[in-house]
Write a structure and sequence with these properties.
single chain; 2 domains; 435 residues; 16 helices; alpha+beta
């Protein structure tokens, strides 16, 4: 029986039990909601609170910037559901693949500085890379998941990134593309950070590691708190990441009538699929005693998934970019760089036949319902951060309860985004009246 059929039967089989649990047993935790919103965006705050009161949210943060200024900054629930530790304004949480989008902004900054060229071969900066069929991979192909390097021959220990970077580079240099580079795209879920972080370090005139590059070039300069690998002394501020219980995940699938999570779960459960091979590539699977909730793992910089931040800081970062890249502190990105980030480089189904995302220069790109070009990156469990340059908006959502098995966006985040844009229309009209 295929993985998809197994998952489908499982969904049907537990549907009634899940309904009973949801309706009669599950009790929402006391709603703890805090934050600040511009009066024109009160609808967003009301919706956010309602989702805590009805048990849809457990611990999260949502924020938005417009024209470089904060208009929404909300946080609520629990950083640790088990101990009832409240989620605070300065709580940091793992953002998983949304880290990829932040690193794409770093790569764009490198292009602005002349340290990197999207059109040059990766081997121009990293000569040893040009082995085993990788000699024709450009920086653009690598960033847009077209390099064929999503699947690796073996893995390396995660701790080698800190302790033995040379060993990691040697491992990456020996890899052979899983498909001919440039002929298709496939999500480099784990390997993106390994290859791109190495490239940035080699292209950097100071050869800094990616976490140091972000801190010195963006974080410190523009007042944005985001860590690629959380320093141990800040671990006490981290939210505990928790998977939704299986029955809750299945209920969400049933309630939303969404077949995509079933397909993804089926592909992840079925042995031999490309998606399964991707999941077991790059770095070795974590031993049971070393999880995302430990300082030993959290501190390791890996741009595929190990960034830590919150919605306020991510919205500020993308808000600067959406507002033209210029601030009183200096220029983060040029207008030319921002225009290039809006351009999709892929389209249609991916190599594995499951993912359907338009990737650009390290970011996901899409045209929203208003026809505006938007770019950014989602992350596992519901994380999202993006820039809308047309409406000069940066927006982000971060959650400690990992709810979504989807590539189309978390249900609660999509609710907040829709409400935000309704409010923004009124806000723009009100600004015109006031002026």
């Amino acid at each position: 029986m295929s993985g998809l059929k197994k998952v489908s039967l499982l969904v049907v089989g537990v549907g009634i039990l899940v309904y009973l649990y949801k309706a009669y047993i599950q009790k929402p935790l006391p709603a703890l909601v805090h934050g600040r919103v511009h009066p024109d965006f009160q609808e967003v705050a009301d919706l956010y609170r309602a989702n805590f009161e009805n048990g849809e949210e457990f611990g999260s943060t949502f924020a938005a910037y417009y024209e470089g200024e904060p208009v929404v900054n909300l946080w609520g629930g629990y950083a640790d559901v088990t101990t009832r530790r409240p989620w605070g304004e300065d709580t940091l949480s793992i953002i998983f693949s949304s880290t990829k989008g932040v690193t794409a902004l770093l790569a764009a900054l490198f292009v602005d500085r002349g340290w990197l060229d999207y059109d040059k071969l990766v081997s121009h900066y990293w000569p040893e890379f040009a082995q085993n069929g990788k000699d024709n991979i450009t920086v653009a192909l690598l960033l847009s998941h077209q390099g064929g390097l999503a699947v690796t021959n073996g893995t390396v220990p995660m701790e080698w990134i800190e302790e033995k970077p040379q060993k990691v580079w040697e491992f990456l240099e020996k890899q052979r593309p899983y498909w001919p580079p440039g002929t298709a795209y496939g999500y480099h879920g784990i390997t993106f950070g390994l290859f791109v972080d190495s490239l940035l370090q080699k292209a950097d005139p100071k050869h800094r590691r990616v976490d140091q590059i972000f801190k010195e070039e963006i974080g410190d300069k523009f007042g944005i708190e985001m860590y690629n690998g959380l320093p141990n002394h800040l671990f006490y501020r981290a939210a505990r990441h928790e998977q939704n219980p299986l029955h809750v995940t299945l209920w969400n699938i049933i309630a939303n009538l969404d077949p995509e999570p079933i397909m993804l779960m089926g592909n992840m459960m079925a042995s031999g699929t490309v998606l399964m091979k991707m999941a077991h590539s790059g770095t070795a699977q974590l031993p049971s005693e070393l999880s995302f909730n430990t300082p030993e793992y959290s501190r390791i910089p890996q741009s595929s998934m190990n960034g830590y931040s919150n919605a306020r800081n991510l919205a500020k970062l993308y808000g600067i970019v959406a507002n033209g890249g210029k601030t009183k502190a200096g220029v983060l990105l040029s207008q030319k760089a921002i225009e290039r980030l809006k351009q999709p480089l892929t389209s249609g189904k991916s190599f594995d036949g499951v993912i359907n995302i338009n990737f650009g220069y390290g970011v996901a790109t899409f045209t929203d319902e208003r026809g505006n070009a938007v770019f950014g990156h989602d992350g596992s469990g519901g994380q999202s951060a993006f820039a809308d340059p047309t409406l000069k908006t940066g927006m982000a959502y971060v959650t400690g309860r990992l709810k979504s098995i989807t590539v189309t966006g978390d249900r609660q985040f999509l609710q907040y985004r829709t409400a935000y844009y309704r409010c923004l229309q009124r806000h723009i009209k009100n600004k015109k009246v006031r002026t």
